[in-house]
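Thread: Newbie trying to understand structure tokens

Hi all, I'm a second-year student working on a class project, and my supervisor (Dr. K.) asked me to get a predicted structure for one chain before our next meeting. I've only ever worked with sequences, so writing a 3D structure as a token string is new to me. If someone could post the tokens and maybe explain what I'm looking at, I'd be very grateful. Here's the chain:
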Amino acid sequence: MNEGDSLNNSKTFLDSLLKEKDTVVLAISGGPDSMYLANLLLVYKDKLNLKIIIAHVNHSLRKQSEEEEIFVKKYAEENKLLFEYLRIDNYNKENFHNYARTKRYKFFYEIVKKYQANYLMTAHHGDDLIETILMRLTRGSSLKGYSGIKLITEGENFKIVRPLLFLDKKQIIDYMDQNKLKYYIDSSNQSSKYTRNRYRQNILPFLKKEDKNVHLKYLEFSQELESADKYIERVVLKEVKKVYKDNKIDVEKIKKLDDYILKKVIEEILHLVYNNELAKVNKKHQEALYNLINTDKPNSFINLPINIIALKEYNNISFKKTKDLEKENFNYIFNEELILPNKDRIIKLAKPDKTDNFYLYLDSKEITLPLIVRSIQAQDKMAVKNLKGHKKIKDILIDSKIPISIRKQIPVVTDSQNNILWLPGIKKSKFDKAKEQNYDIILKYEKKEGD
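---
Reply by user tm_fold:
Sure, no problem. This is what the structure looks like when written as tokens:
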């Protein structure tokens, strides 16, 4: 295939890429772009002893589809190339293009795997790149998205390569026509009901009038953005390791980051949290996590998809499943000893011991027995020892810096009239007696080993 001076970039690119005995899968539709690609690769077939597989998808949408399949199959046979095809008969009408693309690439990846190919090559060209960049700028995207179509995308044990990004549609058509090479035209590419076609018909002619090689400027722009994105990604991954460990974000550290990097770090952390469920997470969730990091509230949380909660507890944000936080409420009558759901223990002592918050001294004449040990309720208040009036339990826990994730596990001790006597290990009520006063009940709170 003799290349003119204006078509040399793709050939130069392939010269630097292909090696002896490489296996290449070509996505060939039968249109001018893909047939140009097929003819281009024939140059390397004998020179490098390549194994080339033609992968064709019959979308069954036009009368011409059957004819195109026969044509591509015959082309493969005449040039001693392997031929694989997929026929799609049924479509998801609500999202036709995404459905077709997913089915198409699933087929291509299967063929790559079947032949253990080094490359999957598609015939995307410079005009496709311009259209993609403009469409993404219009609807919004990320830095990676704004870069459009890459020359090379890393797959799993193979590369997706687009050698024709150096060319525009006119160059391809001119070459095919001048060399009398057969191809088919998909009439749907002219329909203005498709967004891409409207860009193609209305915007590309203006850009090409300004500069006939504008596609090369867009390729430079794309590669510039791709380089910037790769650099930022390296910085972000480095920072993620510093601020996110053991499923926890260090709030103090992450807030020191430049705001742009901080947002990218949030995006990467959510990638790590969601892994295979990443499609469930969007910009709204990233913004919610950003606001959680920057809130002045010491304890707060946000709900995220698939029953995950991002829980802020002072200087840490952790990600937990909702079910892990939903501990059952408990309510027990206390006798001599009680083991709580979290394995902590409250016991009755026979003689005085210490007087810190892990001990309670009561006069049974001032309270109504039996004692109750229960979980905290929303409106609980306690008359705190040495303070006037009552204070909400919620405020006591906040002041004591008790993480929100364990508050459900904390017991309160009351009498039978629901007077709160004690928050074991945290605060005592006005009912607690000094050692020199009268008391006949002594309680001790023991944390389970390791707490």
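A couple of things are worth pointing out once you decode it. Residues 1-6 have pLDDT under 50 and may be disordered. The domain at 246-325 is CATH 3.30.465.60 (Uridine Diphospho-n-acetylenolpyruvylglucosamine Reductase; domain 3). Feel free to ask follow-ups in this thread.
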